[in-house]
Amino acid sequence: MPGVIRPALPADALTLARHRYPAETDAPERPVYAAWVADALERGRYVGFLAAPDGGEVVAGAGLTLLEWGPSRGDPQPYRARVVNVWTHPGWRRQGLARELVMRCLQAARERGITRVSLGTSEMGRGLYEGLGFRARGTEMELVLK
């Protein structure tokens, strides 16, 4: 589908927030995320791509959050990236849009010299990411400080 994919802009922040929080039960989360992502796009800490056939409604999207990580053992690159907000309207699934959008995110990471990219996935998306070379790493943990 050439010509339907475009970069995400700060004006797309609410659309990106809907991709991040598609369930109506999560709607209260959208304004805070939209404000953050608009600022992150302006600062170059978020890169995103949207598919909008004929310049119309956005039917798919994917983003890349750029994280200032610091150099680590074996990797002098101070940045990491995380693929986020991969979403495709149900009527447009299985047409290669998510794959193309994620590949554009990976190219954006390469252009910035980033060598480590992570993501979280659902069972439905696992095959897509494995096909792009991602491998499962079951060591992620989280602590919520209060």
UniProtKB/TrEMBL annotation:
<dbReference type="Pfam" id="PF00583">
    <property type="entry name" value="Acetyltransf_1"/>
</dbReference>
<feature type="domain" description="N-acetyltransferase">
    <location>
        <begin position="3"/>
        <end position="146"/>
    </location>
</feature>
<dbReference type="InterPro" id="IPR016181">
    <property type="entry name" value="Acyl_CoA_acyltransferase"/>
</dbReference>
<keyword id="KW-0012">Acyltransferase</keyword>
<dbReference type="InterPro" id="IPR000182">
    <property type="entry name" value="GNAT_dom"/>
</dbReference>
<protein>
    <recommendedName>
        <fullName>N-acetyltransferase domain-containing protein</fullName>
    </recommendedName>
</protein>
<dbReference type="InterPro" id="IPR050832">
    <property type="entry name" value="Bact_Acetyltransf"/>
</dbReference>
<keyword id="KW-0808">Transferase</keyword>
